[in-house]
Amino acid sequence: MKQLIQLVLLFVCIAAKAQTIPNTLSVSGSVKVERKVTQYKAKILLNMDQVLYSNPEYKTLDDLKNAYFNMLRTKGFDTSKFKEDELSYLTYGYQKEGTVYFYETTNPQDIKTLSFNRINGITVYIQVKAEVEEGTLNKLLKTALANAKENATRLASAANKKVGDIQSMSETYFKPEIWNSYNNDYEEFLTVSVSYFLE
């Protein structure tokens, strides 16, 4: 008899718990992110492996450096702002000597000068810093939440339900500023995930 009472109580508890679990709906909302390029970074690799065959007049790394720097100076470029990092060059695994210079600027013309004025043995890698303007992040979040609400309403309507209050929400990892290779065709979206109670 005692076991029967315990069994009945167990079923009553399970039934009561099942009735308290609310119906919810989970959706995503997104908004396109517009970033503004605010800074440029160049990594300039000087590599004697390439020079010995294509430009035999440069016998040493100093010859290559002088030729490159002089070419840039004739274009009005200030090479004194270069920062040399010889250890960075070692990570490339080349057999001949070389070095790496870093340069940062907010002037796109400087980057154009570096990109268009090279000689064999010089490789230039460009990165850009793209930022979301201050005060824009909250606007983006509100727009993404509004999009999530639209998606939830459409989905709930298909099931003859109404959307209630928000149960929970989260956003994808979003960095206000990023460094990356320049790609003007890339579209970035801020996405939020939202769970609503159904009525």
Question: Overview of this structure, please?
Answer:
The chain starts with a helix and ends with a strand. A 5-stranded antiparallel sheet has the order 3-4-2-5-7. Strands 1-8-6 form a 3-stranded antiparallel sheet. The chain folds into 2 domains: 22-35 and 133-198, Protein of unknown function (DUF541), domain 1 (Translation Initiation Factor IF3), CATH 3.30.110; 37-131, Alpha-Beta Plaits (2-Layer Sandwich), CATH 3.30.70. It has helices at 2-20, 48-54, 61-74, 86-90, 108-116, 136-158; strands at residues 24-33, 36-47, 83-84, 98-105, 122-131, 163-171, 177-180, 188-198. The protein has 6 helices and 8 strands; from the N terminus they run H-E-E-H-H-E-H-E-H-E-H-E-E-E. With 199 residues, the chain is an alpha+beta fold. Residues 1-18 form the signal peptide.
Task: Please supply descriptive tags for the structure shown above.
199 residues; alpha+beta; Translation Initiation Factor IF3; Alpha-Beta Plaits; five-stranded antiparallel β-sheet; three-stranded antiparallel β-sheet
Short description:
By secondary structure, this protein is of the alpha+beta class.
Draw up the topology in text:
Layout: H1 2-20, E1 24-33, E2 36-47, H2 48-54, H3 61-74, E3 83-84, H4 86-90, E4 98-105, H5 108-116, E5 122-131, H6 136-158, E6 163-171, E7 177-180, E8 188-198
Query: How many domain modules?
Result: 2
Low-pLDDT windows of residues: none
Number of strands: 8
> Approximately how much beta-strand content do the residues carry?
25-35%
The secondary structure category is alpha+beta
CATH fold-level topology of the largest domain: Alpha-Beta Plaits
Counted by DSSP, the helix tally is 6
- Please trace the helix and strand order, writing H or E for each element: HEEHHEHEHEHEEE
Quaternary status of these chains?
single chain
Q: Report the CATH C-level class of the largest domain.
A: Alpha Beta
Radius of gyration, whole Å: 30 Å
Spatial order of the strands forming the largest sheet: 3-4-2-5-7
Q: Estimate the helix proportion, in percent.
A: 25-40%
CATH architecture of the largest domain: 2-Layer Sandwich
- Report the sheet with the most strands, covering strand number, pairing sense and barrel closure: 5 strands, antiparallel
Tertiary shape: elongated
Distance between the termini: 41 Å
Average pLDDT metric? 87
Protein name: SIMPL domain-containing protein
Signal peptide: 1-18
InterPro entries: SIMPL/DUF541
Pfam families: SIMPL (PF04402)
